[in-house]
Amino acid sequence: MMTGRSFDLMGKKSKPVAVQLPEVLDRMTAKQVADMLIPSITKAATIEIGGTDVRQIGQVGLQLLLSAKRTALECGADVTIRDPSDALSTVIALAGLETELLAASAAN
Amino acid sequence: MNSDDIQNIFLQECDEGLTAAEDGLIQSKSGNDDPEVINSIFRAVHSIKGGAGAFGFTELQAFTHHFETVLAQVREGERPLTEDLLGTLFSAFDMLADHVAAIKGEQDKPDDAALTQILHDISESLPGVQAKDEANPASPETAPAEPSAVADLDFDLDSLLSGLGDEPAADDDSATAVDDDNDIQAAGWTIMVKPDTGAMDNGGEPVLLLRELTELGATCQAVDISNIPLLADFDPEAAYLGWTFHASADVRREDIEEIFDFVSDVCTIVISLAGQEAVLEEAVTEMAETKPKAEAVAVAEEPAPDSAPEPGDPPSVAAPAAAEQATPKPAAKPHQTIRVELDKLDRLVNTVGELVITQAMLTERVMGSEVDATQELATLDHLTRELQDSALAIRAQPIQSVFSRVHRIVRELENETGKRVDLVVQGEGTELDKTVLEKIGEPLTHLIRNAVDHGLETPEEREASGKDPVGTLKLSAEHRNGRILISVSDNGKGINRSVVRAKALERGIITEDARLTDEEIDNLIFAPGFSTAQTVSSISGRGVGMDVVRQNVQALGGRVSIASTPGEGSIFTLALPLTLAIADGMIVSVGDETFVIPLTHIVESLRPTEADIKSMGDDKNMLSVRGQFLPIIELAGQLDIEKAASVPTDAVLIVVETETAGSAVLMVDDIQDQRQVVIKSLETNFRQIGGVAGATILGDGQVALIMDVETLVAEARRPRLASAA
Q: What is the number of alpha carbons within 13 Å of residue B378 lying toward its C-beta?
């Protein structure tokens, strides 16, 4: 199994990679999104996660976004969440995770 | 799992809650003043209320709120649990059960207006209650009355999750109250929420809990993200986050607990006074290390405004109490259960039945060959019996589910008749097959009604005869000799045999010159159409009840008997089989036919000498058994079978006993074997035949009929009674 620590920090592309979150980010879709994010974080220096379509998200989705943030940090990449939908923003606020998940995108 | 499945689980939990609540009420009635008893009632009602709200059952939620409010006052020691109040709580419990039954579609929605008003008046009669409710905007008092809020409660996980995009409703009153008292705000509650792995199973969503907390005015103080893994190790099934929320002291502890009612087994929840976080963190850590199944354990006392810690109080003053509360109890090994569809169990039992038949066939085949497999066959027999016992044990359920309904029946009968009844229940843990259990409710209910209506006297009558004005009705169950005995006994006036006899004469059941024993007179009340009630009431006396009781019990392979003493009371005893699927039987031959006689009826079997037989003329013979003469019933003659032994001394005599027809002797040609047989219903596969209880498949593949000994003996003895009559 590939682990985060084995990520190659070299050869990252400077062009941002965009990954769009699905409308529903739950246990069914989280693994697919994680599989999409892993190569992006490995290869790119900047990953922009688009949250505009998100209609439904719960704890699993939040955990996935936090995991992406942590992985990016380990790999020397930057993950930002762009254009979070109202549903996404509200759940992030409910969970007290604005600083962890939205601070970077606010800066953008 | 869809919302219907989840709702079904809620309804099952309602049943469990009702059982717990009624058990608690009964304990309170019997004088148990342990605070845990009232706590258990409160928790059960509170839990039902929580689920009712989640599923949009507004009437149930509204009613349980009023019920719960009164219980809370008792629990907090604000209101004594008087006999009158206990009666009201019992009525409220009955109404609650009616609400649940209505949701299940078993009855119409009950009219709870009058009782709701009574509960409301009781709760409001406590000084300061109204003010307390008004000061607590999060009180559920107003929740059920808000149509818009209620309408949104239809249980739909998707819409609920989607709805998370909406801001929680503003709670202006709460904010004002908090601002008014910064000292209380400074204390308040600290709530630590740590969903466990499994918290998101079956559509569970912990974020919904956070939303409910914010709706109470709680705010997120910290999020523990230390367990978040790298993406490569990310498991979508796992829960990595933990939260610490703060709520003001105006929020009731119950309201916080209510949020976690249905997740206590999949979330670690710690609620305590603010300022005790260190103690709580230690408790959470300890729980995580020791608890196999997380559940809410550490709950401190409610910080009522007058007891809330002052800002200047040293933390150590409250710490020991909080620590004591927060320290988890030693984790007991959880009693794990799973819910299994009954169809699956039925298939299992049927398969085991087929296995028993196949085993018998195999045994027969092997024994007829030259293969020496005695040891293997014995092992197979042992394993088959174990498997069979295990399969039947899964279907077995405590009779408590039936007995628990009796309390309500008795309460209603007390109200209807003016009689006073002390109900004593014993052996409610006795287990019997679910099929038997489902069918025993109706006959048992009628026996109870009959005992109160006809057996027990009014308080005045009892006092006049020197008895306690409160009659005793005892309901018990026990295993005995491979059967379940359920008895309903009362210390009332007993059966008035002269009245019964006169009524039987009037109805043409017996003739004027009938010479009947006391037992035979008592048994007349089971005759079709018999009734001794002076007036036809809604309680009993419709003239069909006791007949139906006997029919239902016999249909279950059981028997019902009476023992009555004038002036002292009566005992009705139901003897039921443990299961309807498999029975031990004696395989006998009559002519060319093979029959099975259930072992439960058999006393002994013998080959008689001429001296043992006494002829009564008309081809009737009696067998002398230890000084007692019993009628010999020739099965061949009874069943029109040819080529069978016609002389008792050439045959085998089997002494049997019955509940209602007394003892008798069955005459057969020979005994082939004694073994377990799988009972196949004749009604299902063919049609009902008098004197035959069912059929089975023997080891050689032959179908054998199982004798209904009760009916056979009764039929054979009827001419004697008729001639006596």
A: 4
User: Out of B165, B220, B239, whose CB is closest to A87?
Assistant: B165
In chain B, which residues have their Cβ closer than 8 Å to the Cβ of A4?
Answer: 229-233
CB B547 within 8 A of CB B536: no
Query: CB of B352 within 8 A of CB of B307?
Result: no
Q: Write down the pTM of the prediction.
A: 0.48
Q: Give the range of the structural domain holding residue B595, as residue numbers without chain letter.
A: 582-724
Asked if A57 lies within 8 A of B164 by C-beta distance, the reply is yes
Same domain flag for B122 and B136: yes
Query: How far is Cα B101 from Cα B29, in angstroms, rounded to an integer?
Result: 24
CATH number assigned to the domain comprising residue B666:
2.40.50.180
Position B545 confidence tier, pLDDT thresholds 50, 70, 90: low
Q: Which residues of A touch B236 (CB under 8 A)?
A: 27, 30-31, 34, 60, 64
Q: Which of A29, A60, A64 to mutate to test the interface with B (most CBs of B within 10 A)?
A: A60
CB contact under 8 A, A91 and B229: no
CA distance A40 to chain B (A): 11
Q: Which of B20-24, B577-581, B720-724 has the lowest mean pLDDT?
A: B720-724
Buried b vs exposed e over B644-657: b needs ≥16 C-beta within 10 Å? bbeebeebbbbbbb
Q: Domain count of chain B?
A: 5
**Among residues B558, B577, B596, which one ends one of the domains?**
B577
Cβ of A53 under 8 Å from any chain B Cβ? no
Cα dihedral B501→B507→B512→B514 (10° resolution): -60
B225: chain A residues, CB-CB within 8 Å: 66, 97, 100
Contacting residues of A for B223, CB less than 8 Å apart? 95-97, 100
User: Each residue of A53-85: pLDDT tens digit?
Assistant: 999 899 999 999 999 999 998 888 889 999 999
Q: Enter the tokens of residue B268.
A: 């670690």
Query: How high is the ipTM of this complex?
Result: 0.88
- The correct CATH number of A17-107 out of 3.40.190.10, 3.20.20.450, 3.30.750.24, 3.60.10.10 is 3.30.750.24
Residues B198 and B277 in one domain: yes
Q: What is the pLDDT of residue B262?
A: 73
